[in-house]
Amino acid sequence: MVMNEFPLPGGVGVSHLRAYDWAAEDGVCGGSPHVHLACTEAYVVTGGRGAVQTLSVGGYAETPLEAGVIAWFAPGTVHRMVQEDGLRVTVLMQNSGLPEAGDAVFTFPPDVLADTAAYAEAAALPKTDHAARRRRDLAVRGYLPLRDALRDGDPEPLRTFHRAAVALVAPKVAEWVPRWRAGALKAAELTGAHLEALADGDGSHLDRSGVRVATPSDPDGFGMCGRRAAYDIPLDQEGLP
Fold it and tell me: What phi-psi label fits residue 91: left (phi over 0), alpha (psi between -120 and 50 degrees) or beta?
């Protein structure tokens, strides 16, 4: 048995982030503002202090982050991690694999969002601090007008961004469905099967018990919000946890 071929509970993804400490054009230190179109994301704060700035049709908010706080946001919520003092966060991501497949869309300026090739080039995974900072700064450039409009009570620029993001990812959605079926959906269906078996007095699935361990596959990579320790935990052939 290959011990890492078991998904985390519910088919979630997990990573650890050290928020970037580079100042953007508005003087704020932190990550690249972006949105998820199908996934809810949660921040479990494990150390330091900071904040998360969020944009939704309900307005702009800034939520303080410190050890012990959990903050989560539904699809459509633009979020920007803000660094203040050694902020460290464990990220739990619904539908593991979808963000990496394109569910995450940066708040690049409208001309970049409208050009698939230009967006792909700007959003490419960086390999250096300079490239990560350049990507972050481009996202902040498109983010600030959205934030300013919401502060003035106008959600239409955010809705325009949402429409552009949907148009950008729509061609990819068919590729996401198998990931969702093999991950989150399979996990939920498996729980249902276990409940039915237990009701019938059948505990044969308990033979698959045991501990599984994973270590970061990329312990110091570049994420959207900071230096990212990521895990690669694939499904087994039956999609079993």
Answer: beta
